[in-house]
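User: Just a sanity check before I run the rest of the batch. Below are the structure tokens for the first item. I only need the designed sequence back.
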């Protein structure tokens, strides 16, 4: 290739040289001039050749770079047009057509089958161990998939699917993957029948629309939460039912509803999750979890004899040192006698008492200090009856200042009465026999911020409780945004499945098959629920389905807890309409996307 390029370059250079030569010969008068001209022309030719060849080397250099970057190399055809030669083409993995579809579906199915056993109130948990031995036990679909370290590209799409459901809705992250897995499984059967993937994707789209609209017809509206909180608590209980926290099911649901209602803006129908904080502390029981309407700080009063609670607290929030003035190392102070030393001590004490008085004069009865103060100062504070908290971190100081409506005071001399923060009560929480203490600042003037304080036997339980409560908080928020609900336990899926298969009969094109498969795939959710509860899945589903049709009752679902009633309204198994709709739409989108890929190439090591 190089020689080819070089010969082209030589040809071009000769042409240039001839051009220069002929220009000058036109004007030459004698041979001497001609000779001189030839020399000039040759020099010019050399100069241009050097320039031209250096540009060729530039091109070659770029081509080599390109080769290194892309695994291909750049070449030119006889017209100078560049093209790329990809080496080792035979070593690349490539799948096309039906092979590609099958391989994708297999990958997606295996991810869905892992997570399928976690669905429902009797779904099982998964334990994930990180390379450094950290253990996570969870039932949350999004968390399981996120921690699963999936390599396959299509499997990653399913991980992202459950992540989107988590971001959008917060709950239903397992259900959405189970549904997507089932849709792809059914698509495989259709592909085997010889139906084109695009027709399948179209059929799924049509079916999803029917199901989406059908949900609207079977949904119910909730009453205003300001009047009756009970239905909201029931919905939160459905969400928490499948989690480890279901031991104190009702209490957790109440905490979630109270937390959301405390911060909800009912006019705008929105909830700011920034105002809901979750703190956990190992120890105690899950039942000891509580909702604190205020701020929780992992600190205690600086002296054990200081009061454990301060009512009508007025807080001086200091980010400057609050201690007797000390001689710093850069000062030189000669103390030559005991008397001098005593005087110095006396002076320090006097000065600090003056500072304490200054704080008390502003009306403060509690000092929150970012810096520490030594034991001597601590003792003096106790003597002067000014409770104080030391070493409070920067972000916590800010949170306290915002919550109590106080100002952070960076210089002691700036402290005034208007800058104090106020709170109804500041109290210390103590835990069992441990010396751990925390400070609770409640009835704050300025904020609706709440903290859910989770207790549990170990870190794993606390983390899982946080995830579960997050699901419940999201569900309540969704209900405040859109108060329509459908019934769970697979009831809405069965009802949609019936509606879709009815609609399929009316379609005369080939999409009919895809719609029927969609209806079958919807049944995978009740099937999985029954299977995970130890029931005979097909029998149970057949019975419930026939009852739904005969009784025209879309509330009938799988009685997972074997309470003896299939009516999910009676069992209070409630889900939000937004969640079900999001599940449907997200699952269909991913299936369509996967069905549209018919050619994959991966580098030798790539997983396909
Ligand atoms: N008591 C119950 N009886 C019957 N079905 C129930 C009951 N409680 C919950 N379900 C059903 O269980 C399913 C929810 O299970 P689960 O919470 O494990 O998964 P998810 O909500 O899809 O995902 P995740 O909660 O992990 O984000 C829903 O279909 C819901 O209707
Ligand atoms: Mg759930």
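Assistant: Here's the designed sequence for the first item:
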């Amino acid at each position: 290739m190089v020689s080819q390029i070089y010969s082209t370059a030589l040809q071009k250079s000769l042409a240039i040289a001839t051009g220069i030569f002929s220009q000058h010969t036109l004007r030459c008068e004698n041979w001497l001039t001609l000779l001189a001209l030839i020399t000039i022309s040759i020099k010019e030719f050399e100069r241009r050749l050097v320039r031209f060849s250096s540009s060729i080397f530039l091109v070659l250099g770029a081509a080599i770079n390109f080769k290194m970057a892309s695994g291909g190399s750049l070449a030119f055809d006889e017209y100078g047009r560049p093209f790329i030669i990809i080496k080792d083409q035979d070593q690349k993995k490539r799948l096309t057509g039906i092979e590609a579809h099958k391989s994708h579906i297999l990958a997606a199915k295996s991810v869905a089958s892992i997570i399928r056993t976690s669905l429902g109130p009797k779904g099982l948990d998964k334990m994930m161990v990180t390379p450094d031995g950290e253990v996570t036990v969870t039932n949350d679909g999004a968390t399981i998939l996120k921690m699963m370290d999936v390599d396959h590209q299509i499997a990653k799409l399913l991980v992202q699917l459950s992540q989107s459901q988590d971001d959008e809705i917060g709950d239903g992250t397992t259900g959405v993957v189970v549904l997507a897995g089932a849709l792809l499984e059914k698509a495989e059967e259709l592909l085997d029948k010889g139906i084109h993937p695009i027709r399948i994707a179209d059929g799924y789209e049509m079916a999803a629309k029917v199901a989406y609209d059908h949900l609207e017809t079977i949904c119910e509206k909730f009453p205003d939460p300001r009047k009756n909180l009970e239905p909201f608590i029931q919905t939160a209980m459905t969400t928490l039912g499948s989690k480890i926290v279901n031991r104190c099911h009702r209490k957790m649901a109440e905490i979630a509803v109270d937390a959301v209602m405390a911060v909800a803006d009912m006019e705008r129908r929105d909830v700011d999750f920034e105002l809901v904080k979750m703190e956990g502390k190992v120890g105690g029981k899950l039942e000891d979890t509580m909702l604190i309407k205020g701020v929780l700080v992992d600190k205690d009063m600086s002296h054990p004899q200081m009061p454990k609670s301060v009512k009508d607290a007025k807080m001086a929030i200091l980010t400057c040192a609050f201690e007797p003035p000390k001689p710093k190392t850069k000062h030189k102070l000669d103390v030559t006698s005991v008397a001098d030393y005593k005087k110095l001590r006396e002076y320090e004490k006097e000065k600090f008492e003056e500072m304490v008085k200054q704080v008390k004069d502003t009306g403060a009865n509690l000092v929150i200090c970012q810096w520490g103060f030594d034991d001597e100062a601590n003792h003096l504070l106790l003597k002067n009856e000014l409770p104080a908290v030391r070493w409070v971190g920067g972000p916590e100081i800010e949170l306290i200042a915002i919550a109590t409506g106080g100002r952070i005071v960076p210089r002691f001399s700036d402290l005034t009465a208007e800058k104090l923060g106020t709170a109804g009560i500041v109290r210390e929480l103590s835990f069992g026999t441990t010396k751990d203490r925390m400070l609770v600042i409640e009835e704050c003037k300025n904020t609706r911020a709440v903290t859910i304080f989770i207790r549990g036997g170990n870190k794993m339980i606390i983390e899982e409780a946080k995830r579960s409560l997050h699901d419940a908080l999201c569900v309540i928020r969704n209900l405040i945004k859109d108060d329509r609900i459908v019934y769970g336990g697979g009831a809405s899926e069965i009802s949609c499945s019936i509606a879709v298969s009815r609609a399929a009969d009316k379609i005369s094109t080939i999409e009919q098959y895809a719609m029927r498969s969609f209806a079958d795939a919807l049944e995978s959710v009740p099937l999985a629920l029954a299977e995970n509860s130890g029931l005979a899945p097909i029998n149970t589903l057949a019975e419930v389905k026939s009852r739904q049709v005969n009784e025209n009752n879309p509330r009938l679902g799988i009685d997972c807890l074997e309470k003896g009633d299939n009516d999910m309204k009676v069992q209070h198994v409630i889900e939000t309409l937004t969640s079900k709709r999001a599940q449907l739409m997200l699952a269909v989108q991913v299936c369509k996307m996967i069905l549209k890929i018919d050619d994959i190439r991966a580098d030798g090591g790539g997983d396909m």
